[in-house]
Design a protein that fits this description.
Helices cover about 35% and strands about 35% of the residues. Strands 1, 2, 3, 4, 5, 6 and 7 form a 7-stranded antiparallel β-sheet that branches. The radius of gyration is 16 Å and the shape is globular. The chain has a domain of about 110 residues: Roll (Thiol Ester Dehydrase, Chain A). It has 7 helices and 7 strands. Strand 6 and strand 7 form a beta hairpin. The protein is α+β, with helices and mostly antiparallel strands.
């Protein structure tokens, strides 16, 4: 178990996710975690436009838009599945839909039913690659970017045998 995993366990996983806004790359980029459901089924984040994440034409830097979405599905799934499973990012893509001209938000949803479906499928197949999608919205609810993530999920015994 990594140091960060031990800290998350001690603080409580929902509080740990909330504190990710203090992670230095997120502090610099202006990413804030604004809501974490106690059951880890929902995480909401914001990215404010600042001098640190503004691109050449004055809008949200694409790397910051992706960064605000990068870890959450993996962390939410890893924490909900528990220690018996290895969860890694496998691939990601981002589609830019319109310029981000101010604060933007993203809401990650991973309901318990989906987690249990992933658990059952992983137990049956040994390894799966579930896909997730989140849309980054501006303050008017207009889509700015769409991020697709594919994760790799294995039982830990399977992960060790493959290593």
């Amino acid at each position: 178990m990594s140091l960060l995993q031990r800290i998350a366990r001690r603080l409580g996983q929902d509080r740990f996710l909330k504190l990710l806004g203090l992670y230095p790359p997120y502090l610099g980029a202006g990413v804030s975690v604004t809501h974490v459901a106690a059951d880890l089924s929902v995480v909401e984040v914001e990215l404010r436009l600042s001098a640190w994440n503004r691109n050449f034409v004055g809008t949200q830097f694409g790397g910051s838009l992706y960064s605000m979405c990068d870890p959450f599905f993996m962390l939410m799934l890893m924490m909900q599945l528990g220690e018996g499973y290895a969860v890694w990012d496998k691939s990601a893509s981002i589609e830019f839909l319109r310029p981000g001209r101010g604060k933007v938000k993203a809401r990650f949803e991973l309901p318990r039913e989906r987690v249990e479906q992933i658990r059952a499928e992983t137990d049956a197949k040994g390894k799966i690659n579930p896909a997730f999608e989140v849309t980054v919205l501006d303050l008017h609810g207009e889509p700015v970017a769409r991020v697709q993530k594919t994760l790799s999920v294995r039982r830990k015994e399977t992960a060790r045998a493959a290593a």
